[in-house]
Task: structure prediction
Amino acid sequence: MKRMTSLLGAASMMALAAGTAHAGEITGRVTEATGAVGLQGAIVRISETGQTVSSARDGSFRLSNVPAGDFTLVVDYLGADAQTRSVTLISADDQVETNFVLGADVAADDNILIIGQRGQLTSALNRQRAAAGLISVLSADAVDRLPDENVAEAARRIAGVNVLNDQGEGRFVSIRGIDPNLNTTTVNGVRLPSPESDNRQVPLDVIDSDVLSSIVISKSLTPDMPGDTIGGNIEIETLSGLDQDDRLLQFSLRGIYADVVEEFGYRGSLTFADNFMDGRLGVALSVSDQLRKFGSENAEVDGGWETGVSVPFPGEFENRNYDITRERTSVVFNLDFDATESTNLYLRSTYSDFSDQEYRSRVENKFEDPDYLDSSSGGGAFFDASTGDEFEVDRDIKDRLEEQTIYAVAVGGETFTGPWTLDYQLAYAYAEEAEPDRIDTGFRAKFDEGVFGVNVNDAMLPQVIFGDAAAEAAYFDASNYEFDDLEFLNGVAEDDEWSFQFNVQRDMAFGQYFGFIKSGVQYRTREKSYDATTLVYGGYDNGSGDDLTLAGFASSVEYPLGNFGPAAVPQTVRGFFNANRADFELDDTDTLFASAGDDYSASEDVFSAYLMGSVDIDALRIVAGVRVEDTQFDTTGNQIDEDLESVTSVSAENEYTDWLPSVNLRYEASENVIVRGAYYASISRPNLAQTAPRIVIDDDDEAEAGNPDLDRQQAQNFDLMVEYYPTEDAVISGGVFYKSIDNLIATFVDDNPGQLNGADINELTTFANIDEADLLGFEFNYQQALTMLPSVLQHTLIGANYTYVDSEATLADGREITLPLQSQNIFNLMLGYDDGRLDLRAALSYRDAFIDELGGEAAEDRIALEHTQIDFSAKYDLTDNLRLYFDFKNAFDEPFRAAFRDGGRELNSQYEEYGWQTQFGFRYTFGG
Result:
């Protein structure tokens, strides 16, 4: 309580700003030509005083603390001529309302305030131009123009953003090359927790892009924003019923076809928004549901390669085939209520459910044990199973349903009284990942005769080969594969957070200049845990003496990367296990390891307060202040020794306080040139799973351990950006950014750890802080509607952005690396055509290679190789209400490739193909 009292004391400094209780006020709304849709990001300025605000999402604006007198009000919005209007306040507490309709005086053919690609471009540019800090905006209409299935894929189009894929679909967002765990994600201002047990990063493939209003990525922080992000914040905005005056009712339905599995799915959505009670109550509901069947083909190396021989070979080479049914449901329900002329209240809720039914067939070929033949040549490495150790091959099946749920609800409001603005919010967010009744079943063959091999002429796509026909026949004979083990898992990860925040702002004059002082407090309390119950069965005995082999469950899979051979039918395996569970022999030791080793729980409380000010000095806006965040966390994990003599629950705790100053500068060098500069200090807390005091020592005296002594990662961030708006619907921007990061967290492997919990350990894998890392980058963005071109070409649009990032970190052993997950070059190109009815777009996304996983030395680092994806989209408005869609995603079947780099060679770590995908359908808007 004492700590909270001291933090609240910062907010009491607001009293220093107190002045007169009453002040003049000018309010209004900026809308497009029909008056139905508010325009966000319009700059509203009083010429005589310099007071400036930008319009809110519904187009509303409010200028307070205005003295009595005659004034000229100017509204500036890219895409329309500036409007001026004379306004008179007859007294110091007079209130005047005046509305602006932009584009009404422009002929229909020339009116650039249109929907479509040019409209969304204009909307995004105005928001970015008006912002105090560095933000990038992607509107819902822009998202609708490309085959982006979720929030992550939509964010890929933004400058400086790279997306990490899972099964060919965007999942995590990296901003300026920073690990997604160092980003934060919010929905309507509410922090989202992560459903994954070992991460803070939010998997954004959970949320369907159909429920978006816009995506805003903040690349610099102001003091009123939580300070625990080093990459940036991804804000997902959803629809409000007060955003527009007319009723909105839309229904869309699309079919989905996936090339790899040759299966159809569907994607549908329904959106409703309207206001009632004379425009005081806004109601918005958006529902989307998607069912998609797809798959992938994979060739992968587990571990590394043996390179000190005439023909290099992988120690363990795997072929994998995936069949997946993915369902995604998202629901948004928002209420906005203008309770009085000075108080607005809201309820905002978001629910997303994501499930994957995954069947994975795998063949593991273990080449490290049998004798390597010196005669290996011509790209083939051969092994004689008869003279050395046996050649071991595992064929297994994973039958897993993964369910991820994220929901958030917030109630709050905003109150205006004279020059004062108060806003407040109470929110709850919950995330869960469950794997109910997962079954992993393995069958193993050990061949003690025959010559087996691997062809590595294409080192990114090895192939299993054979030295004799008998070896080949034995390899593909399902009866040679005997039951090895079965794991039955029920696991649940939960992450939830309560938060409360209260902010006070007072508009005021600083001499002849106008601005405001703002202060606030926030409290967040978070609980995260993982609990698994795993049963490991290591044998089977039904009393008959017969072996259980793959032959009783075998089928074939379609595998274009090679000859896969027999694979278990997952439904048959599950049915057999359920019917004969009593005949399977439980392995008590492995069961205990699997059930207790990963379990943990953690709690985290964050108290924060801030004080900031903003002032406009002619063409310069300064926003500066400081935020203080006090963090307390405690965590509990299990420690298991190698002899299983004990399973001990161990707890740890930590506490620290951070002072986080920031300054954002916005300078209008001319009418169409804006220069921005920013400095802010920020932190990123460790993943809670990393801090759990878990220790698991296996039979090989290898240990995995959490580290409760991990320090938070601290960063000093600098930005300098120039924006040039050559025309009313174009922007050219470029700038540099620099981040100095202390205590960066990395996975650490110690090959000589000594003793741990009284046991002699051969290898310890844990987490440790790196002293310092630096990141320097350049960002360029160009977007324009090419209206200057002749004839039909004037409907062309182009967009391109490029980010270059150079980073360096030094590991504990002295090795210098680039930051994991950081691509040096990121490039996006978009070419579009929009004549108001036909809408075409092609988009290219490129990212450079990056370190995906750190190894003990450079040759053991897993590198995700460069990736280029091209997507096409076509829309046609058949009528004013009916739009037809056709999308073509990953048109050229770009695979995912990861490799080990050794002596200039790229050796397979993973090669995976996903195929292309199409969507086709319609959207119908009722009324209008």
